[in-house]
Amino acid sequence: MILDDKLGSHADAFYNALMDCHAGLTEAQSHALNARLVLILANEIGDLAQLEKLLATARKTGSPEFSGS
Amino acid sequence: MAYDYAPFPYTRPPGLTQQEQRHPVVIVGAGPIGLAMAIDLAQQGIASVVLDDNNVVSVGSRAICWAKRTLEIFDRLGVGERMLAKGVTWKVGRNFHGDNQVYAFDLLPEPGHKYPAFINLQQYYVEQYLAERAQDFPDLIDIRFLNKVTYHTDHGDHVALDISTPDGTYTLEADYYLACDGAGSATRARMALPFEGQTFEEHFLIVDVEMETSPFGNHDTPERWFWFNPPFHNGQSALLHKQPDNIYRIDLQLGPDTDPKEEATEAKVTPRIKAIVGDTPFRLDWMSVYKFRCAKLDRFVHNRVIFVGDSAHVVSPFGARGGNGGIQDVDNLGWKLAAVLKGDASAPLIESYNTERVHGSAENILNSARATNFMTPKSPIEALFRDAVLSLAADHPFARKLINSGRLSQPCDLAGSSLQTPGDAPLRPGFPMIDAPLTGPDGPTWLLSQAQGAFTLMTAGTTPLPEIDKINRIGINQTADYPCFASVDGHAETRYGKDKIYLLRPDGHVCAVFDTPDTAPIIAAHDRALGAST
Ligand SMILES: Cc1cc2nc3c(=O)[nH]c(=O)nc-3n(C[C@H](O)[C@H](O)[C@H](O)COP(=O)(O)OP(=O)(O)OC[C@H]3O[C@@H](n4cnc5c(N)ncnc54)[C@H](O)[C@@H]3O)c2cc1C
Q: Is A65 in CB contact (< 8 Å) with chain B?
């Protein structure tokens, strides 16, 4: 699946806020924060079929056979 | 060929012999901002003395990217076409991650503009062309090289300056003191004004090389190439730009823990360049190592002392918002200061320069800081997110939008400032004008060339424009006893609509829009744009 832009003109502001959210944390704390964030965002999306597609998309991008695209 | 730095002549200033009459304006600093400021004022009949402690244009490689809005302002100042002719026009930017292109953008795919989205032109050419243009105003611009300002005092209704020259010291008085003395402004230091913001720990190596062969792969079209994790450089990022005279700008991120002195040597730089260009012969033209910061003054106007350009605000260069932001300062201040000095407006109009340009520079700082942060991850987790964005970007449009290698300079929207009368139109009050091609009695021309420089009423419809004192008029696709033009390819109507009347500021921003040609609301909007209290 191809993910179109929904952040619009707020893309940079969001990214900045995400970095600020991690500021000052140790790496372990940051990973824990990310995990909480994934769960929170998943709950906000709610739709299981949609979530499964998103999980597959994220997995596909990160997998080694895909990294050279 | 390397640029030939011809020194400007020094002449003994009259103030050494006897006290000069008080000048309306003294401009401290003959960088791009001070020079543009003097020309802008001279075009409105205001005389200035420009003092510079040096006698050559900017040495070495600094600003290279000049944005469309800057070129439109330079056009008004009479140097835009010369810069366009010499500059390298580019509009495509490519972002790479390692060897792979992840995203390309085209800055101005739209036809019907006199100037392109960007040109690259070395700062020394920009300053040379401005200095030469200033010579067209021998009675209004008095540039004094090797005149260093060592002290100033604001006496409420004027400013007194101490100046040192090769022949000794003298003093001057001026109604207004424009501090265009750059990032290290001694004026700012003397006044003990806080200049706060963010300093980035990273070092960047900036190199200019001259090469006959283009490094842009198998085509010769100049572009902006940016690499995250470049294959040829063990660092976070690299940037490549073409400049005139076959000079290429290469920026390499070096990390926080390097020795800047040692890095800026031929022995260190040559192998780094060879890693990029291979066996292609090149000449090193300039190299330096920088650390960047984003900072600004809280206020740019301090009674009779006004800060313009880098003295007021500095940014990291990703996004090219430094010099471009400063030229917008000039554009904003020029007509206001001239109106106050001519008695057409009162001093509070100058306060709107403060409001509008503090707003503009805050926007520039926000964008430059975000880009620099994206490029220089400060922690493993920031690096992780950045790499995640880059890996998603190959497939997903949303992630491409998150890649930030610099959000390139845009003119700012002044809708929030009190000079504008709120209203609705295709181009709303506060927005900078959008150019459009026209033809008139003297042949092809451009809307911006016709409209900028004075308050102007403009319409692209049939409504006749009323005659109002001190307001120019431009009709598009109509016939009248004021200047009228035909629109080319319908661009003007598309951009401005057919049923609106626009009141434009001398700096080419929309300040009010009207549905009918009634004079009373137009006069009220004009008064408001000149700072009359509302
Ligand atoms: C590596 C690098 C890349 C950049 N790239 C870009 C870019 O691509 N696009 C862009 O728009 N900007 C860019 N910039 C920023 C740009 O160079 C500055 O914004 C611009 O030079 C500011 O102009 P200025 O006239 O305000 O100051 P300056 O150019 O610094 O000029 C100040 C002048 O004041 C004089 N002066 C100082 N003190 C005194 C004194 N006491 N008495 C008399 N004279 C004095 C100095 O001699 C100098 O001539 C870049 C900067 C760097 C360092």
A: no
